[in-house]
C-alpha cells in the first residue's frame, strides 16, 4: 500500500553463524503480552472479493478465517470518491475505490443518512468471516478510516490534499466524527456478530504522499487536528450510544513516526491521548530498537501497542538474488521482530488477497482489471502456510514468554501445558539451534511443522516426523537439537506437564499475600456463569485501571488481563483451564476482590 522504504534488521540478540549452534533459552517466568488478535484489513480485497460469485467469497474467507486462523478484522469506513473529481477517474481498480456511506445533497446543504447498501461487497465478506469465526467466539472488528468523505476535504478528492497537505476541511472535525460514529453505530446494530470493539479514525496521517489524484484514499491530519477529531469522536460516541467502543490511534506508516505522533499527543493533548485504548503503528519501516523504544514509551502510559498494517513495500531481494518468494520469509521475520519488540498484542497484515504474490496470503492468478469480479483462480502464497503454522499454534490467549534469540519467539498456553516455539531462518544458509526447555517438566513428545523454500519445495506447513536434527529435531534432556534450512519457518509445539516445581512454595506464598490484600467489602466485579465449562463474563463496577488475574490453588498465576477500558471482560476458559477450582482476582479503582471459579 505504501511508498516507504523498509530495511530488514537481522538481529535482536546475536545469532549464530551457519556452522555453529545457537542456544535458544526459553524462560516462562518472564511474561510479556497475551495475544489478542491475529488479523488483516478488509480494504481493498474485501471490496473486490464481495463482488465475485459466492463460491469465490466462500473460498477466500475460508483461507483467511479458518486456514490462517485470523480473528481480528479491520473494516474500512470508506470515504467515497467525488463522482466529478477534478483529477478524473484515478483510483486503483483492485478494490481501492471504496464506496462512501453518505452523499452530499444536490444543493450542497449537508448530506444524507447512512446508506450501507453502497458497501455491500465489503459487508458480504465481513458477514462470511463473522460466520466462520462464530464457533470460536473470538472475533474482534475494528472500524478504520483512511480519509474523510470527499465533500469534507479541502481538495474535494478523497485521495489527499493538493501537494500532499492536510486535507480535512477546517471546521469539519465534528462532521467527520459524526460520519464515523453514525456508520459504526449502524453496522454494529445490523451485525452484532461482527463484535465491533474499536474505531480508528486515521491512517498514516503523518505521511505526505496523500495527494489529490493519487490511486487510493488517504488524508494527512497532523496532531492538533487529530486531537480535535478524537475529542469530537468522544462526544459523538455519547450521542450514538457507542461510548464502549475503544478509540485507537494513529496508524502511522513507520515506527519512528508513531513514536513522534504518540509523544505529541501525550505531551500536548493529554486528555485525548488518555482516552485511547491502544497506540497503533504500521511497520513498513523501523528497526528493532525503534520498536523497543516505542513500546517502552507507550507502556509507561499504561497502553498497549498494536501493529495494524505491514507488507513488503519497495522490497528488493538480497544482493545477487532474484527469488521474489524470499520476501515471505522476510515478512515472517518482521512478524517476530514486531511481536518481540513492540510486544504487539494485535498483529495485522494489509492484504489477504492480491494479484501480486508477495503482498498477500492468497494470490489471484487470473486478475483482469477489465473483469474484476470474475470467479477468482487462487494460489496460496508462502505466507499463508507460514501463518498456518504460527497463528494455529501461537493462539489468541497464549502469552509470549522469555526467549533470548531474535529470530524466534515463544508462547505459553494459559494452563502452562503447551509451549510453542517459532523459528525463522530468512537467510541463504542453514542454521543450527539447541532449543532449551529445561524450565518445563518432563517433556516426552513434541510436534514440528515447517514451511521452506519456494512453491516447489513441498514443505507447506508440513508436519515433520523423522527424529533427526535436520527433520523433526532430536529431543534429549528437555532440549531439542535442530538445524533450520535456508528460507524456512519452523514451529515446535511441545506438550509438558507444566513448569518446574521449584517455584511452587513462593507462588503459594504470593497468592496468600494477594488474598490478604483483598478488601471483601468492595464490590469490584461479578462473574457469570459460575460454575462454567467454557466462557465466563466478568462484569466490573469500574474499568478504570483495573486488571483481572486468575490463579490456581498452588498460587500460580495462569492469566492476567491488560489494563481494562471496558466494564465487561469475556474469557474463554475452555482453552485455558482444565476442570478444577481457581481464584479470580480483580484489582482496580474500587479496590480489590477475589472469587472462587469452578471449571466443570
Descriptive notes:
By secondary structure, the protein is α/β, with parallel strands linked by helices. It folds into two domains: 36-395, Glycosidases (TIM Barrel, Alpha-Beta Barrel); 501-599, Immunoglobulin-like, CATH 2.60.40. Helix content is 23%, strand content 26%. It contains eleven helices and 28 strands. The chain has helices at 45-49, 54-67, 120-133, 173-190, 223-240, 255-268, 270-274, 288-299, 326-341, 382-391, 504-516; strands spanning 21-34, 37-41, 72-76, 140-144, 196-200, 246-252, 276-282, 305-309, 346-349, 353-354, 362-364, 378-380, 399-403, 408-412, 418-425, 431-436, 446-452, 462-464, 474-476, 479-484, 488-495, 525-528, 535-540, 547-552, 557-560, 568-572, 580-588, 591-599. A ten-stranded mixed β-sheet has the order 18-17-21-15-14-13-1-16-20-19, with helices on one face. A hairpin with a 2-residue loop joins strand 27 (580-588) and strand 28 (591-599). Helix 4 packs across helix 5 and helix 8 packs parallel to helix 9 (326-341). The radius of gyration is 24 Å and the shape is globular. Mean pLDDT is 90; it is low at 2-19, 502-509 and 516-521. Residues 527-599 form the Secretion system C-terminal sorting domain. Residues 143-230 form the Endo-beta-1,6-galactanase-like domain. InterPro entries: 6GAL-like (IPR039514), 6GAL/EXGAL (IPR039743), GH (IPR017853), Glyco_hydro_b (IPR013780), Secre_tail (IPR026444).
